[in-house]
Amino acid sequence: MAIDMESAQKLLCSHLCSTVRFIKRQSGLYMLDTPFTFPDGDRYPIHVRELPTGGVRLSDGGHTFLHLSYENDVSTFRQGTRGRLLDQIVNEMGIHEESGEFFLDVSMDGVAEGVFRLGQGLTKVYDLIFLNRARVKSTFYDDLNAMLLDILPEEKVTRDYIDARMQNAADYPIDYYTPGKNNVPLYLFGVPNRDKSRLVTIILERLLRHDLAFESILVFEDQQEMPRQDLARLSNVGGEMVASLDASHDLRRKITRKAA
Description:
Layout: H1 5-19, E1 21-24, E2 30-33, E3 46-50, E4 56-59, H2 63-69, H3 80-93, E5 96-98, E6 101-106, H4 111-127, H5 131-134, H6 137-151, E7 158-161, E8 174-178, E9 186-191, H7 194-209, E10 215-220, H8 228-237, E11 240-242, H9 248-258
Parallel strand pairs: 9-10, 10-11
Antiparallel strand pairs: 1-2, 2-3, 3-4, 4-6, 5-6, 7-8, 8-9
């Protein structure tokens, strides 16, 4: 049976019109009611404001970042990999962001397209939250760095430290150095995967071979995912271990105990 495209088009238009509509608030301002929602069921608040030059501004009123702030530090969405992804989303969707407000200026003829562009952009922004738990490899070090700087003063943290007491020290960079108690340096390593586990094992063995005094803390992305043999070799040469970045209190306790 052939589909009646004309009837299907009318049906589609009627359904879309019933799910997107203007609502006048008591303040006299207008908002758009749309089917876009956050995972908890709250609808995206899309404010509509007339522009002096003609057309309208569609805006989330800063609500997206406010919604994210309930369970996240929104400053991390402007840093590192998340910051680059946020810029990419804004550019791809043709929207703008100022002081936490996402908006789009359109003509009245472009309102329909603008609603869907802004809605899609806000959805992509909110999806950045999933990097907090999934922690793709590209954000692991961003998260680790942020956690360390929350525990230690920035001036006491050195990234990619080279221990000049070793021969060919530049070939064995240490993720983080901070002064330790009794003038013993404290080295911290991020271990997101098996390859990094093996590299850290080599670096620690090199330090031990030179009979150098140091303390170490190894922070895993997920220690349970580490192959048993690699974890055993690392355990033989490493110091304190933190099973994942979710164990933030454990990391703070171990650093505080060893750092000067």
